[in-house]
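Possible regression after last week's pipeline update?

I re-ran a chain I had predicted before the update to compare outputs. Posting the input and the new output here so someone can diff against the archived version. Not blocking, just want to make sure nothing changed silently.
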Amino acid sequence: MNKKVLFAAVVFSAVLANAQDTSTDPTLVKNRKGQEVLPKAGDIALGFNAVPVIDFLVQSVKVGAQGNLGATAGTTSQFTQNAGQQIVGKYFLDAKTAVRARFGFNTLGTTQTNLVQDSKAVYEASLSGTPEDIRAASILNVEDKRSFVQNNLVVAVGLEKRRGYGRLVGVYGAEIGISRAAQKDSRTYGNAFSDQYSTVFTNNFGTGATTTQAPTGTATRTTEEKIDAQWGIGARAFVGIEYFVFAKISIAAEYGFGYSFARSKNLTRTQETYLVGQNGPVVVEEKIDTRSPNTSRGFGVDNGINSTFNKAGIGGSTASLSLLFHF
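New output (post-update):
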């Protein structure tokens, strides 16, 4: 028997065996071992995105498929940034009421390096005039570097009501949340501007394209771009379902709809410009505000994709399933 099919059969059999309930009371579900399946007053739940786990199971039973395990989630439900990277916590006031909270802190950082010719070394070699020195200097490089950092923070709290029979539970409620997003893009250059020789620097780190600054010309390059923190606030109602696969272990999905408001501040660009004025060459550093403060607001269904509520980055777990553990 194919190993992947055997693995899926074992998992499926374990789920069926565990799902055999012994209690006749639909509000007090117990499995065949006598363990209570549903949460009760005082229980705490902790959940996270279940799509990678489900995708692993789906990929594992694809007969004849090779190299699929560990692939990015996409077979079942597409992973989304706002929903997939949040932790969900709940505290049960009673079997039908829970206080819930969501927290997400996502950070993206990248560094790009582009090698350009060492302009100063080439110039100094040209002064000696020997072909060997010029040839050796022409292969020397310096580094232009770009560092990009982006941070997103989401915190939401709410009240959840629950009702249902057996392992299938309906959930509904409301929550409020705040978000914060900011980013910074810094760049350093290996060649300084010069009034004696032409210098090369990177003008596009994505393509590696360069610009040459002439001693008698004018050239400008960015050293930093910074977006001040964008703050958002929103209120959200939600409705969904939760199914307890094992005792105190469930899979849940929900849809939400609400109103959000977000405000972003200026994007500030710092740049240095080389120019030749009446008093000779000079390098001027300046800061430029390239965007005025603006706001975005609106009401819409929180479906995880281009959501109006996600204008504030507070969207819920509607585009992905949540795996929850109760203890």
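Follow-up from reviewer: compared with the archived run. The chain has five helices and 13 strands. Marking as no regression found.
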